[in-house]
Write a structure and sequence with these properties.
There is one protein chain. Helices cover 25% and strands 17% of the residues. With 699 residues, it is α/β, with parallel strands linked by helices. The chain folds into four domains: 98 residues, Ubiquitin-like (UB roll) (Roll), CATH 3.10.20; 106 residues, Alpha-Beta Plaits, CATH 3.30.70; 202 residues, 3-Layer(aba) Sandwich (Rossmann fold); 124 residues, Dimethylsulfoxide Reductase, domain 2 (3-Layer(aba) Sandwich), CATH 3.40.228.10. The strands form eight sheets. A seven-stranded mixed beta sheet has the order 14-13-26-25-24-15-16. Helix 8 packs parallel to helix 17. The radius of gyration is 28 Å and the shape is globular. Its EC number is 7.1.1.-. GO terms for molecular function: 2 iron, 2 sulfur cluster binding; 4 iron, 4 sulfur cluster binding; metal ion binding; NADH dehydrogenase (ubiquinone) activity; oxidoreductase activity, acting on NAD(P)H; quinone binding.
Amino acid sequence: MSDTFKLNIDGQEIEVPKHYTLMQACEEAGAEIPRFCYHERLSVAGNCRMCLVEWQGAPKPIASCAQIVGDMRPNQDGSAPIVRTGGAYVEKARNGVMEFLLINHPLDCPICDQGGECDLQDQAVAYGRSNSRFEENKRAVEDKYMGPLVKTIMTRCIQCTRCVRFVAEVAGVEEMGMISRGENAEITTYLEKSLTSELSGNVIDLCPVGALTSKPYAFNARPWELRKTSSIDVMDAMGAAIRIDAKGDAVMRILPELNEEVNEEWLSDKSRFVWDGLGRQRLDRPYIRENGKLRAATWGEAFEAVKAALAVGPDKTGIVAGDLIEVEQAKAALDLFRSLGVKNTDCRPAGAGYGTSGVREHYILNPTLMGVEEADALLLIGTNPRVEAAVWNARIRKSWLWGNLKVGLVGEAVDLTYPYEHLGTGPTDLGKLASSDFYKVLKDAKRPMIVVGERALVGPDCHDLSNFVRKLSQDVGVVTEGWAGFGVLHAAAGRVGALDVGFVPAEGGLATADILGGGLSTVILLGADEIDLSKLGNAKVIYVGSHGDAGASRADIVLPSAAYTEMTATYVNTEGRVQMTTRATQPKGEAREGWAIFRALSEVCGKPLPYDTADQLRALLRGKEGENTVFSGRGYAPGARGVTALSEPVPEVSSSLSSASFAAPAVDFYLTNPIARASKTMAECSALASRLDTPVAAE
């Protein structure tokens, strides 16, 4: 029996899979079907009826989004059913639907933030009347409170229920719904409380009218006033595709762009709303501390002060790279300090033991972010993807909801928005895994997946844990031909790129914990703020970064650098995908790109680096033509290429695993980096989240 079905659409005969909707079939034939409620990533609701088409022989117009092609019958003579997507019959039906949709819709277009990019405006131009025949009073709906991110003007709502389906199906937090019936129907949140999902901002993009808009962006700009720049997000290690909209020298908003392999078309709230932090607490000129206070200085003065601080010798100097460091800065800094003989360099958290083996597959997410949709069993170890990679967590939920994914967790028991088997909280529970039912699930799975969090690989027994997890991966068969199911989920955008350029201690060099332990005379922080600075004592601290955060507060010399929206720079995401940001605005004041700071400093130190432009630096990273370097390709994840490296024998675990629990994230989701901590919006979200941690009972 054939799995395809033939249709005659607008005189063109096509053959499509039987599971297609009639709307998909019409678009396959080249027709454009208007819609409000239908969205390809959400379940079908069939609410708006804007997608009506004519099926010859049917008693009334057909809602094409809800009609499955396989359920249609051929004509009496056996020929393909005839469908028309245009003509007087279809036009009249859509005109009637549009007239009903606009009965209560207010004339808010001049003051509506959706103006200029509104689906309802576009369809009203095509199918609307020049006047209304409705004479009764328009209904008004009270606006709802949805938190500090989503602004509501619910009188504009057309009850398409996209937002309701999104929070239930994708975000996994059922906090929105429709109440009442008929003309009294309205969308509301549960008990009119704030949305608690890390993905709540996506309802703004989904809303086809101006009912749900961005609260921080309200009345700031019109879409046609904005410069639109495609770039990459750095708020987590996923590297989501984003569009930065800027006006003048300020970023006005950040929106997701389509990238099926990384973020589909979703974006976390932190990535979307952190933009106001780009203009606050900025370092826009060099500073030198004199008599206990920082004073503004010239670049020349600052470089001479850095040169003097480096005179203590390479053994007394250490460099720590932060979470947001770009590849170019890491490479330039490493080249300079290696030429000066400095071995104490590290980009990892204090106590980390990964990244020094030289085997890239040991510290990237080999099965890829998209690979979880192919997996049928997933073991999470010491990670909370809802906080560390919120959009990927939605993909895991998608695989559980629409596929047959079974999830196990060793770590803190939290709400991940999908059910899982809790197998323990720490390393010792991993040792007991072989006797659990989930071990059999992993063994029997065709494509099992084991993901260990970066936090789990930090601590005194990090090497033993790493070896144990890799051995476990081999035992359950996560590495097979064409499938590399073991991976590490990072939380910092700059981590993998810094590891790829070798920003780890040289032989005999000190790691992060020892650099910060107080034994060195000069410590250089490359945007490193999420670290313990309490033991540095009288060490001279040089801070290179974009925001006045913990590192700059402790610094004796401050060198201002550009933020990720102000430079074209390379990042490598957690799955090893080489990506690039694009400059959307100019750096603030006298700030410079990180690599340029170290190129200029190398001249002052008498060790000029062998590149004068960013392109020359990137050419060096890519290597000579034909060389297989990490940076020679861009935009793809290596994936199953790691099969060989992950199949190599693993050293035996030297001692019993720790009985302590895996550490929870040190800070909350909204305040993980200096840009987020400078954001007023993120501060509001953080304060609200801490209040909502207390359970609320309903009578």
